[in-house]
Amino acid sequence: xxxxxxxxxxxxxxxxxxxRLRCSxxxxxxxxxxxxxxxxxxxxxxxxxxxxxxxxxxxMPKERxxxxxxxxxxSILRIQQVVRGDSAAYFCASSxxxxxxxxxxFGPGTRLTVL
Amino acid sequence: xxxxxxxxQSMFIQExxxxxxxxxxxxxxxxxxxxKQEPGEGPVLLIALYKAGELTSNGRLTAQFGITRKDSFxxxxxxxxxxxxxxxxxxxxxxKLSFGAGTTVTVRA
Lengths: 115, 109
Description:
The complex is a heterodimer. Chain A has strands at 5-7, 10-13, 19-24, 31-37, 43-50, 53-56, 65-68, 75-79, 88-95, 105-106, 110-114. By secondary structure, chain A is mainly β. Chain B is built from no helices and eleven strands. Chain B has strands spanning 4-7, 10-13, 19-25, 31-37, 44-49, 55-58, 61-65, 71-76, 85-92, 98-99, 103-107. In chain B, strands 2, 4, 5, 9, 10 and 11 form a six-stranded mixed β-sheet that branches. In chain B, strands 1-3-8-7-6 form a five-stranded antiparallel β-sheet, with no helix packed on it. In chain B, strand 4 and strand 5 (44-49) form a beta hairpin. The interface between A and B is medium-sized, with 31 and 27 residues.
């Protein structure tokens, strides 16, 4: 009964490159959330997706960041033309439902370093 | 997102001590969650609270959902070395979790 899977665990990119972060939710979970964590801070909400739908992307920067959760395959967080300020840990969480009793289970994260 | 104030920021414990931390918010929440994060890993859910006034235990952990719905606390009784890590509170009214900045628990030498 695997938990939330994320890969890669570590990603190094040079400024201007693209970063693609993948997340496979827990079995039976159709709700996926992405959070960003800067050093010594709590996690900050970025986006909430269900299969083939973006429900809430209010925490995503307006430019360069996009997310998808296709019918088949993992959810992808994509950062184009990365800058040093994008360096952070990006966590994906999943839940079986939305709303009351919404327990979100987190993956191990992808640590992005932009050189 | 909403700002949660978590305190203390850090604490040193000796094995066997009881540990307490709390979280306050300027807004009310319908759900409070407590997570533990270890270095290089994602947050692991410890306790979930759904009703104001609720007191819930999970082994040596006890958490309460404040009556005002604006606060929560977490107690760890009889701490052991593996309790070290960063503990986060999180509040939510639907799906968007708002996190505190964390309480770092370290074993006192």
